[in-house]
Amino acid sequence: MSTDQAPHGWRESLEADPLGLARAGRMDELIDPTPPADQRRALVRLILGLALIVALGFAAGVGETVVLILAFFVCIVLHEFGHFATAKAAGIKVTEFFVGFGPRLWSVRRGETEYGVKGLPLGGYCRIIGMNNLEEVDPADEARTYRQAPVWRRLTVGLAGSAMHFLIAICVLFAMFFWTGSNANYVGSLPASSPIIEIDGLTSGPSPAQQAGFQLGDRIQSVDGIRYASFDKLSAFIKSHPGERLDVVVARHGRPVHLYPTPVDLSKVHVAGPSGAALATSVPTGFIGIAPDPVVHRGLGASISAAGGTWVSVSARTLDAFGRLVTFHGISDYAHMLTSQKAADNPTNGVRFESPVGVVRLFHQAGQDGLSTVLYLLAVINLSLGIFNLIPLLPLDGGHVAIALYEGARSRRRRPYHADVAKLMPLLYLALAAIVFLGASSLFLDLRDLLA
After folding, report:
1. CB count, 10 Å around CB of 10?
2. Reported pTM
3. Where are the domains of the chain?
4. What pLDDT band is residue 262 in, cutting at 50, 70 and 90?
5. In angstroms, how far is CA 92 from the centroid of its own chain?
6. In whole angstroms, what separates CA 8 from the centre of its chain?
7. Which residues are bridge partners to 354 per DSSP?
8. Which of 58, 116, 157, 341 lies 20 to 30 Å (CA to CA) from residue 144?
């Protein structure tokens, strides 16, 4: 077929790439209208507008949520910076690096690259030339295209975006463990030696803890000579021994202190204060009246270890969730959620993505729970984005990685092989349709929850 001959048939039409997705370096070529005349003034207005939004957010009591949204936006930009930095290091030509999409508000050219800001703060992009064999490039720049770079260079560029998300996640997790402390709900059971931060009384008088002389800040070392790893196991021992005098050793100001509480039976007494109703029971249950700090604080070495372990654990759960989503059972559950509000409200009923509306809601809830929850949520989102982008389908980064690996396997020392991306156009459009469907259906689910 000659180059000026129109293709015939649905397959040929798809391979011709009518939307220009394969030829576009990034999404900017799809939504890049003529920039406004006064770019600097527009940039100043954008900065003032963002500052006003943050100020209004704090005035409305949702300032933390607005800041978290901006932090999430920064994570998306850092994804693109990963591609930009590795491409520059490889000598591949990068013509544009922009924050945002849509109308160009401000830009400046440094060397061969134009840097700037666009009007829609939905992420960022960098334009790397020659991402595939369909893109037309100036012959003078052909040697510096992505497609002409060594396979290992192409792999570093393709993997850099997800690598940035993984790096952000591990740094955020370390900050959570080392700086703010971590909620035990996210990292497993609470250590038995967590400091006591609450001592309850009884409606009928002092509790066993008050009578025995427990103090705020005490750390339990052992009970009846037994050391427990978790507070859950320690608590279970106390609950199983109502009416029996215990020998509890606590650490107080660095010294061991013996205390001798006798647990009362919760089925016969009532705990004073707002927590009393929740603790009430009809079966014999031992109770002395102490509550530990739910936040776990760690040192440098323990924080590094815990961050690595949590990173692996969350990654494994994310991979498992993605795997379950593409099974027949997962697809059936997702369809059920779309048709039934009750099914969507059941957290055990299936796996689903969060739309921007859902992410904002999660950020708002995390901001109310505290900085530890915020950091954990940021880590989970970054790990999810990093793994999702490695799915080996165009237009995702994993698609470029898969093509680079395939080309490397087919190449010979003097005869490099370049895959014909036109043949992948049907698959590309199917993948894009699936992404659009997931985004639209997730938005529907979140809006329905919001209005319910």
Report:
1. 9
2. 0.75
3. 15-183+361-451, 191-293
4. very high
5. 30
6. 44
7. none
8. 116
